[in-house]
Structures are given as C-alpha cells and as structure tokens.
Amino acid sequence: MAGESILVVDDSAVNLKLAAAVLRSDGYRVTVASSAEQAIMTLRTTVPDLVLVDIQLPGMSGLALTRHIREDSRLRKVMVVVLTASTAPECEQQAYEAGCDGFICKPIDTRTLGPRLRNFLEGATAIPESSAKESGGGGGLGLSGPEMESLRRSFLVDGLRQVRRMLEFSGSEMDANTVARQFHQWIGSAGALGYLELAEQARAAEALLGHPGWTRDDLRQMLAALASAFSSPREAADTPIPERMAQELERKRIALVGFADEEAERVCVAFEKVKALPRLFSGDEPPDSELLRDCSVVMVHVREQTRDIPWLKVDCPSRKPMVLVGGRDQLLALPAAVQSRACEFLIDGWQPEEVVLRLSFALARSAETGVAAQEPPQDSRPNIVIADDDTNVLAVVRNTLESLGMLCRCAISGEEALRMIREHCPQAAVLDVNMPDIDGFDVLAGIRHAGLRVKVIMLTARQHERDVLRGFELGADDYVVKPFNPLELAARLKRLV
C-alpha cells in the first residue's frame, strides 16, 4: 500500500530533515518530532503506520517511548523501528525487549532506508545490513539537489562553530552527558550526509566520554581532531568575497521580511562576513513604514506563510531595491508585476557567498536605474546570443526564450560566440563557463575589452563558487547555476534587457 504514514522522532534537526526528505521522496507521508514528549502529543491525534525513533533522546528515551506506545491499545498496530549509533550487541536486545519491531544502526543509508521500512510494513523479515548496502550501492547521501547541498553545508558550519565553542570552554566545568549527546548526534548526521570519517571521529569522541578516567587534555585533543574533521570537506571551505563587494555592503541596513527563523539565522551569518546590518520584519508592517525607510535593500522570503504580505502584492507602493528569496517554483509562480519589481532572485539552496553576490548585484542595478536612458533597439525583440557546447542545453534555452518573444542565436564554442557578439551586438549573451577552445571567461573578457554594451549571464556548475566570483570580477551581470530552470534564466534576462 502506497502513502503510509511515518512519524520520525530524533533530536537532531539534520537527521529529521534528511529522513523526512528521503522518505517523502519514496512516497511516504511524514510527520516529525524532536523529542519523545512531542511525539506523544502527536500520537494523541494521529495514528501513524510506523514510528522511526532514535534511542538516545533528551528526557524520555526512545525505548521509553516504545513502551508507552505498546501500553496504549489505540496504538497496538503501530510498528516501531529504532535507530541507534551504538554498536553494543545488548542494545539491539534491549530494543526488542521494549517492544520494537525493527532495529537500524546509524549512520542511516539513505538509499535503502525507504525499502527497509517498506519491508517492515509488509511484515517481511528485516533486510540485513549487508544486503541493504549491497542493494543500495553503499552508504552516504542518496538524494541530490540544492536542499541536500544546503543541508551538508549547514551541518559543517554549525558543527565547526559548536566544536570551537566546546574548545573555548573545555578548561571549565562542562556537562559530560550533554557533550556526549552532541557527539552521538554527529555520528548519525555525518554518516547520513556522507562524511564517514567525521562520523567515526564523533564515535571515538563519544566512546572517550563513556570510559572512566578521561581527562580534559584527552577531551581537548578529541575536540581538535573533530574541528579538523569538520573543516576538511570541500563544502566547509570559505570562498573569498571580493573586497570591493564587501565594502559596498558594509554598514548597509538590510531588511529581512517574513523570514523563517532558521533562514534568517543563515542570512545573518552571511552578513557578518561583510559587516552588513540586518533588520528583521514579520511582513505585516506597511512597506512605507519609518523603520523600513532607512534600509538600503529589502529581502523578502517567499513561502506559504508570506504569500499575502504587502510586499508580494501587485500594488505594493515601495520602490526600494528588492531581493526575492525562496524556492524556484514559488518565485516563478509570483505575478509578473511582482517578479519585475525584484532586482534579484535568491533560489533555495543558496550559500552565504551567494547572498552577498545577489545583494551586491541588487544595489548596483538600483544605482544604475534611471542614470542614462539606453538607446532603443532597432528590433523590439530582445536579441540574445546563447553559447554552450551542449546542444541539448542550447535547444531547451532557445525554445524557452523564443517562446517569450526573444530573438536567439546559438554558438557551440567560445570562438563562435565572440564572433557572433561582435557582428550582431546583442543586448545580452548567455555564456557557459566550460566550452572548448575559448571558455566563457575569455569570451566575457573579450566583450569587456572591446567595450561592447552587452549584458552577460554566466552558466556555471553548482558548488563552483569561485567561477562565479571570477565572472563577477571580469564584469558579468548575473549567473545561473546548472542544473537550472529555463524559466529562471528567462526571468533574469528580462530584468537585464
């Protein structure tokens, strides 16, 4: 039967997000709880088909929750599967004695989690750990895309910050149980996100605190090793922000309108790097209010809870530079009049460096508005050159842009693109970074060296933030990350031309 309901109980936000995303992609209906007590509240009004619960929880443990479920006749048909990072043989026995139907060791293999739970629900014997790994192609992250990339980056950044804080206070009194619980969380989260060495380092740290006789020097050494493990993955590396861009945003007041708490915190971390000054607004304030008046840019979080706020209305009176933040589909679903008011879009899955880039673009475009009227083109249709050595990308982009009334010319190499641009003087060019002979950067440099007034959008691969910065330094007007939605590219082109 498809669409069974699963309640996931875990005090790790990363584990909750990851398990929920994996299970929903497999067709399950998922509810989450961050504690056993919260799960009990949920179970008063909901009877799921299965409860997936971590054994180690703050307050009531996962095994205590299992016993509570077994004592409630209303929940007698609910299956309970426990998760644990413990490798002790007696742990599994304790789980079954408490009334569990299944037992899964962390780190979670995201490729096989759904099928393993399906096996439990269908009453079959649990898939053995070894068989699951063989069928799933190994452990690690089973999903891709901006959401998972953002989850990985957030985990590394937050973890490194917590380790450094522990190191700072390692000479004073620390609650060993609290620290051990944090290590336990990292075992599951790191393993599920594909950081197996980090997971093993966290397991060693948890084991240290479980043995009597450990010293503060032992703990400091273990924390230093964890800090190194959190810093090692490529996603943890800071991408340098150009000094000119940082100076443009320094001391600028930025209004954050309608942001969820977690997203607001991430944005504020990005602002710390350039010393910008964020101000938080619920979204209900009038756009022309005094507090908003002295903000240089307004960032609006587009989500279900903010769709009716004044900033997203067609008749919004404010003309402040606006950056719209949210999921690609949510942004493209906004009325055209609202989209056209935005100086920039920031698509979910963004990294801190991208926040700074998009804000810098927004301020620059705001300053350019009305400075000098551009000469009207001979043809009323926007003239665009598209350059990419992938003919499939060319075909999709061309069809999309031509359906929106744009005149397109296509090039499959950098040399051909530069020749077309010199001959036809288009209003804009879309350049793939990686092309044979002359790459997109060289084409961009040639355009700027010749003094051609062509708006340029760069196409780059996700996780190649340095490509974005290099393009910006060479004079790019915008960029889009592959894989991309052609309608997003079209929306960005419309604002430029």
From TrEMBL:
Any Pfam family the entry gives: Response_reg
InterPro entries associated with the record: Bact_response_regulator, CheY-like_superfamily, HPT_dom_sf, Sig_transdc_resp-reg_receiver
Domain Response regulatory, first and last residues per copy: 5-121, 383-497
Keywords: Phosphoprotein
GO BP: phosphorelay signal transduction system
SUPFAM superfamilies linked to this entry: CheY-like, Histidine-containing phosphotransfer domain, HPT domain
CDD domains: REC_OmpR
UniProt-listed PROSITE patterns: RESPONSE_REGULATORY
Origin superkingdom: Bacteria
Modification 4-aspartylphosphate, positions: D54, D432
Signal peptide location: none
Full protein name: Response regulator receiver protein
